């Protein structure tokens, strides 16, 4: 064990990335200024001539202002990228290590499979850390009998698992992951290790069976009305000194009293009072404002395993909750732009602000998915002609945005497919989750609604997993999400076709090229939506009901504008 005066990590500034990022910021910034020069001078001319086309121009300007605002905030995280090296050999001796508490939250055994929750708990107990310095708390907001009974089974299994991990230097301390991987640790005696591994694997299977039996025999209902329950699981057996402390906690819940979801669970401890449903973000913001210096490390071997949603429905529900919470903070007195700069660096405040205000992206995306298209159909130019020098400005901004994204995708080891998937998913989130989240947070602010927390579904559906692994989109999501997406898609395809015909007839290609390009780009990029509506027949396709309603909505929008226009 090492010298405590030496740092546990140090960082290296990635000079190539710094140069590239700053060059991009500078050049893109100059072109953005030219864009706004063009917009304001055009608007000025329109006002002077009392033009009837002022409204679409103002809407486009609003969209460009919001995109630029978020773009500026985004540059903070690119200003000085670093990579870190850690020195675990410099850690102090065991006696000098601080005690740690691990707080695991669960809320609903129907959405968070109990075997998975117990694996999390067992991995935390088996951390490579002095056992008498680890305390693991399982916070069960579901107040569920299933969880209460299963934790006792987990304890019994960990009495074998933890010594096994220590004896054979097991790296992967999550039993489910360990037994489904090919990790072969072990000491000098391979025969003994193999025999022990077989035994512990049998015990793990028995443990899993017993948990699954509990799930089958016990009601998985979550309780909303119960007194507080706190139980130390270890008991008082002195032989258990080699085991961490394990405690089951279920907060008191009463129907008349708001319990504030996970934030409420943390209110019981961490000090801060949480008012938003993204307590992780709020914790970070507050701690950083109080002077905490954190270090982000991304080792090649991941430190944690997580359950990430793979169906569109789960992603959109999860993102709606996230952006409600982020907007709640953004609209509060803790807005990172007001609360942050006095307490932490400007760059850090900008990073936090980017998250808080990203939900606003839905405004420009709706404008850009509707206004240029309708104006294309009705022959109203909103962008410079091909012969204008400003045409180059708009083209450059689009290309530099896309090239920067591609560079980030490639430098993080991903492919062209990841680039198109990211763009699609991002736009889908903007047009649905961000919109509902921003509206919900605003209504909550003025007292019209109350925030809800729908835990992310962690149940694995085999068919969905198969589609995910084959790279096929699963469109089984609520009509509330799918109708806006499909309506906008149909509107774009229709306006591109109508617009193209009109351009060919009127020879107005020179002034309408950008407006024709936008729906063309959307038609190509979101081709999976067309496939989902028209070609696919599997369970993950877009339902005929959604396709029908969306077609009606897009026809209504197109016709409504024609009525206004004439
Ligand atoms: O009433 C509740 C609702 C949820 N949870 C727990 O909160 C955690 C986060 O919920 P989850 O559904 O997993 O949300 P995710 O969106 O997947 O989680 C991310 O986003 C959350 C904020 O929305 C953060 O709390 C998490 O740390 C972060 O991983 C889970 O352990 C839940 O069991 C509770 O303890 N009580």
Overview of the molecule:
One of its GO terms (cellular component) is endomembrane system. The chain crosses the membrane at residues 23-41, 53-73, 360-380, 386-403, 477-500, 512-530, 542-564. Keywords: Cell wall biogenesis/degradation, Glycosyltransferase, Membrane, Transferase, Transmembrane, Transmembrane helix. This protein is of the alpha/beta class and 566 residues long. Strand 3 (100-106), helix 3 (114-125) and strand 4 form a beta-alpha-beta unit. The radius of gyration is 28 Å and the shape is globular. The protein has two domains: 98-258, no CATH class; 273-566, no CATH class. Helix 1 (15-48) packs antiparallel against helix 13 (389-411). The protein has helices at residues 15-48, 54-75, 114-125, 145-167, 175-179, 190-217, 261-269, 279-289, 312-330, 336-339, 346-357, 362-377, 389-411, 416-445, 462-469, 479-506, 509-525, 527-535, 544-565; strands at 9-13, 82-86, 100-106, 134-140, 229-232, 245-250. It contains 19 helices and six strands. Helix content is 59%, strand content 6%. It has a four-stranded mixed sheet, with helices on one face. A two-stranded antiparallel sheet has the order 1-2. The structure holds uridine-5'-diphosphate-glucose (UPG). Uridine-5'-diphosphate-glucose binds next to strand 3, helix 7, helix 8 and helix 9.
